[in-house]
């Protein structure tokens, strides 16, 4: 259970908002975004899912996430992209934790991160963004390799 702390530069992302239980809302959101990306020929950057709500505190029907990928700083949405938005992930200090999900159990990975790994690191989460950076093609590999990112400050 390792963690690394990095100073990250700001990154621009394009994506779409999904609402509802994460396991039910994120996969179709990914499919919609990938279809849009292919239709418009937008170069695919890093694949990220941004999380805005804590499932322990928010009704599952109201959970918000943004399915996104990074784009160039000068990227502009093409016409016909009204369902999508551009955001900037802020620069700052981030805790990064690499995990492999083999059984679809994202909940355990996130729980371990916030309850064990991050507290043992000497850093605290702060208001800001938390997200997953997907590192492999899970359809081809049968598992997910990803990095969990959280904005942090030293204790």
From TrEMBL:
<dbReference type="InterPro" id="IPR029442">
    <property type="entry name" value="GyrI-like"/>
</dbReference>
<dbReference type="Pfam" id="PF06445">
    <property type="entry name" value="GyrI-like"/>
</dbReference>
<feature type="domain" description="AraC effector-binding">
    <location>
        <begin position="1"/>
        <end position="153"/>
    </location>
</feature>
<dbReference type="InterPro" id="IPR050908">
    <property type="entry name" value="SmbC-like"/>
</dbReference>
<comment type="subunit">
    <text>Interacts with DNA gyrase.</text>
</comment>
<keyword id="KW-0963">Cytoplasm</keyword>
<comment type="similarity">
    <text>Belongs to the DNA gyrase inhibitor family.</text>
</comment>
<dbReference type="InterPro" id="IPR011256">
    <property type="entry name" value="Reg_factor_effector_dom_sf"/>
</dbReference>
<comment type="function">
    <text>Inhibits the supercoiling activity of DNA gyrase. Acts by inhibiting DNA gyrase at an early step, prior to (or at the step of) binding of DNA by the gyrase. It protects cells against toxins that target DNA gyrase, by inhibiting activity of these toxins and reducing the formation of lethal double-strand breaks in the cell.</text>
</comment>
<keyword id="KW-0346">Stress response</keyword>
<protein>
    <recommendedName>
        <fullName>DNA gyrase inhibitor</fullName>
    </recommendedName>
</protein>
<dbReference type="InterPro" id="IPR024911">
    <property type="entry name" value="SmbC"/>
</dbReference>
<dbReference type="InterPro" id="IPR010499">
    <property type="entry name" value="AraC_E-bd"/>
</dbReference>
């Amino acid at each position: 259970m390792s963690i690394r702390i990095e100073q990250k530069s700001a990154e621009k992302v394009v994506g779409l908002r999904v609402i509802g239980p994460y396991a039910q809302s994120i996969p179709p959101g990914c499919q919609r975004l990938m279809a849009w990306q292919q239709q418009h020929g937008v170069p695919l950057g890093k694949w990220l899912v941004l999380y805005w709500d804590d499932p322990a505190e928010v009704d599952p029907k109201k959970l918000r996430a943004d399915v996104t990928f990074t784009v160039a700083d000068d990227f502009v949405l093409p016409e016909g992209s009204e369902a999508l938005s551009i955001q900037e992930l802020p620069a700052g200090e981030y805790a990064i934790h690499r995990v492999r999900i083999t059984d679809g159990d994202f909940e355990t990975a996130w729980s371990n991160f916030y309850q064990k790994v991050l507290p043992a690191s000497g850093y605290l989460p702060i208001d800001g963004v938390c997200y997953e950076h997907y590192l492999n093609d899970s359809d081809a590999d049968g598992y997910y390799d990803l990095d969990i990112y959280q904005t942090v400050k030293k204790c």
